[in-house]
Design a protein that fits this description.
three-stranded mixed beta sheet; 21 helices; N-(1-d-carboxylethyl)-l-norvaline Dehydrogenase, domain 2; binds D-mannonic acid; Rossmann fold; 6-PGluconate_DH-like_C_sf; alpha/beta; oxidoreductase activity, acting on the CH-OH group of donors, NAD or NADP as acceptor; 13% strand; 471 residues; Mannitol dehydrogenase family protein
Length: 471
């Protein structure tokens, strides 16, 4: 059966423009918006690079199924709140027109860590980034998220409209503050008046988003067809769990009632974000590198292996929990127990290779913050050091069987070349830790950290990842 809108379905008007339309936003933001059920808050999705989402969604009127996967079975749900999909490189003007339309009051983003073109160690804009350089030279025809937001806000200011709220849904620490800083830094180069207006009138609430959403596969598409009868080319699959903690700061207070779907509006997001980035994402990245090297395809497979399950328990209990303050009313051991179940859900096939992507952009907030806390308290960090060493081996580009690893990372070239030109293993580790965009100026100089990673790297090389995590 073909998926198409019927006349008895109520329509949605665009209230939100979402930059970086991927599976995560369609399984998280869109479902909370669907639950809120306010039809003036429909979502217009924008792909900043590829046309594939639009090509799949447009022929089915932007309808799709979200398939909740549980060990006990699967539950498909039809999602209707997407009002359209634009592909920015094909028509940047259409994107800018929608972003600066009066009905658009919120711009949400999932452009991944690297999409902000910033330096992950400092949170400052990387002016040498080709996307930033392009958008500075051609501000009215941008290609990057920051450039689109600044030009659209400029048009809104010129038209006498209020700015839109910018709601970042990426896994960055203090994401609202970081994005606000980047937008204002970029705007100030073009027009100090615009930058001042955005600072005075705009809003960049911080938010913590959580739901495990693996990339959709052909098998998922076939399963949705078998379950629903619809030939849906663009379903998303997700775990049952979801969480969204949002700072309650929106321009003119205008936002959907996402709390209907369980979103929490709070004054301080930071404690929630800290535990999520460090306990969930930190462990995810550790398992991704070490699990991949040990031959495991998914996180659930890795958790099935008792050596890895024991390792991640030590990482959580002994190294992360003691240095991360819990948000009010949260018991971290209960949180960790839930994570163990979520990671072990066999119905979610989240590939280690997928999570391993873009480590240079992820490590600072996922692992290095915890490492800094432990060093400040002079505490040992064997599991964290092993995770960093796993990333170094992984980005070296050769697996334990001698086969090439398809390393996807904006710094992939640099990571490989510094490793190739180093004389020995210890020099290799030092060369990678010397990359200040990732490790800052402090960690390369901390011999406790450097020596711990050198030792972990040596163990990985000598014994392999599976034996290393079992130690
Ligand atoms: C994962 C996240 O791909 C990754 O790096 O760690 O996408 C993770 O699944 C989500 O943050 C869970 O909320």
């Amino acid at each position: 059966m073909r998926l198409q809108r019927t006349t008895d379905q109520a329509g949605w008007d665009t209230g939100i423009v979402h930059l970086g339309l991927g599976a995560f936003a369609r399984a998280h933001l869109a479902l909370y918006t669907e639950d809120a059920g306010q039809h003036d808050w429909g979502i217009l999705g924008v792909s900043l690079q590829r046309p594939d989402q639009r090509d799949r969604l447009a022929p089915q009127d932007c309808l799709y199924h979200a398939l909740e996967r549980q060990p006990e079975g699967n539950r498909p749900r039809l999602v209707t709140c997407l009002t359209g999909v634009l592909v920015a490189p094909e028509d940047p003007e259409a994107v800018l027109a929608t972003m600066s339309a009066p009905g658009t009051r919120i711009v949400t983003l999932t452009v991944t860590e690297k999409g902000y073109c910033h330096d992950p160690a400092t949170g400052r804009l990387n002016w040498a980034h080709p996307t930033i350089a392009h958008d500075l030279a051609h501000p009215t025809a941008p290609i990057g998220a920051i450039g689109f937001m600044v030009e659209a806000q400029r048009r809104r200011q010129a038209a006498g409209l209020p700015p839109f709220t910018v709601l970042c849904c990426d896994n960055l620490p203090a994401n609202g503050h970081v994005v606000s800083g980047l937008v204002r830094e970029f705007a100030a180069r073009l027009s100090p008046d615009l930058a001042a207006w955005i600072a005075a009138e705009g809003a960049f609430p911080c938010a913590m988003v959580d739901r495990i959403v693996p990339a959709t596969t052909e098998a998922d598409i076939a399963e949705v067809k078998a379950l629903t009868g619809f030939a849906d080319a663009a379903p998303v699959v997700h775990e049952p769990f979801r969480q969204w903690v949002i700072e309650n700061r929106f321009v003119g207070g205008a936002r959907p009632h996402w709390e209907i779907g369980g979103a929490q509006f709070v004054d301080q997001v930071e404690p929630f974000e800290h535990i999520k980035l460090r306990l969930l994402n930190g462990a995810h990245s550790a398992l991704a590198y070490l699990g991949y090297l040990g031959g495991h395809e998914t996180i659930a497979d890795t958790m099935q292996d008792s050596a890895y399950a024991g390792f991640v328990d030590r990482l959580w209990r002994d190294e992360i929990v003691p240095v991360v303050p819990p948000p009010p009313g949260t018991d971290l051991l209960v949180y960790v127990a839930a994570l163990r179940d979520r990671f072990s859900n066999p119905a979610i096939r989240h590939r280690t290779w997928q999570i391993a992507m873009d480590g240079s952009q992820k490590l600072p907030q996922r692992l290095l913050g915890t490492i800094r806390e432990r060093l400040a308290q002079n505490l040992p960090l064997p599991c964290l050091a092993l995770a960093v060493a796993g990333w170094i081996v992984y980005t070296g580009g050769v697996d334990e069987q001698g086969s090439a690893i398809d390393v996807r990372d904006p710094l992939a070239e640099k990571l490989r070349s510094v490793q190739t030109s180093a004389a020995d293993d210890s020099a290799r580790v030092r060369a990678v830790i010397g990359i200040t965009e990732v490790f800052g100026d402090d960690l390369p100089r901390d011999s406790r950290f450097v020596e711990a990673v050198i030792a972990a790297y040596a163990t990985l090389k000598a014994k392999g990842a599976r034996a290393a995590v079992a130690m």
